[in-house]
Structures are given as structure tokens and as C-alpha cells.
Amino acid sequence: MPPFLSPTQEAGRAFVMRGLAGPVIMLNLLRFHEVADYSAFPDLAPSTPISGEEAFRRYVVHTLPFLSRSGGELLFLGAGGAFLIGPGTERWDQVMLVRQASVQSFLAFADDQAYLAGLGHRTAALADSRLLPLTQLSIPA
User: What is the pTM of this model?
Assistant: First the structure.
């Protein structure tokens, strides 16, 4: 199966068409390259090779001000590993939860040209990823 590194137009359209109201939590599952691949972004490449994990750290540092300005926040960034329940062959190096105030604020954030200037760190870092938009449900009494 090919890696999933960015949304398709179809997936983006379906996300918008869901009509989600209120805050959206983005569940990110992240698998890193052992060595970051900056071949598509030589202007961002460090002078010596770095790990995919380090490239992703650079992406997070670059991204946080834009995320905050858009009304979003990083809720959780943690180490992953093998599933307790799930395929034994599947592993994720890190998991990240990001809250956005709304779909509109997420789209504005994702379209910010200054934010996009550092997106190459994410691309260089990731061997594969998943992004699942979540909305909170009421807990039954």
C-alpha cells in the first residue's frame, strides 16, 4: 500500500461536506523515515542528515505559532509503538492530537502561506501517516 502523506481532493471535499460544527480534533498517526528525505525541499534541508523524527520536531516548532494564531492548539504529542489491539505488523512512531476551533479555522490554517513554507519538514519526516478528524459526542447519562 502506498504511503498517505497528504489528503486527496476527494477526501478534502468529503471532510468539508461533513458539515462538522464546533471544535474538531485531528488525530495524527505518524511513521517516520529513519533519515529525513529532503529531496523535494532542498531549501529546508539541514547541512547534515537528520532523522525523520528530528525533521518532524522542526515541523512542529515551525507550525505552533500558526496553529495558535488560527485558534488551534496542540493537545498531545506522544510516542507510539505497536498496538495493544490491532494489527501486529502496524506501528506508529508518534501520535498527535490537535484541536481546531472549527473546520473553517483548520482550512484557514492549512492555507496559510507562511505555514506552508515549513511543510517540507513534515514531508521529509514522514514515511506514512493517517489524519482522522474527530468531533466530540455527548456522554449519555
Answer: 0.92
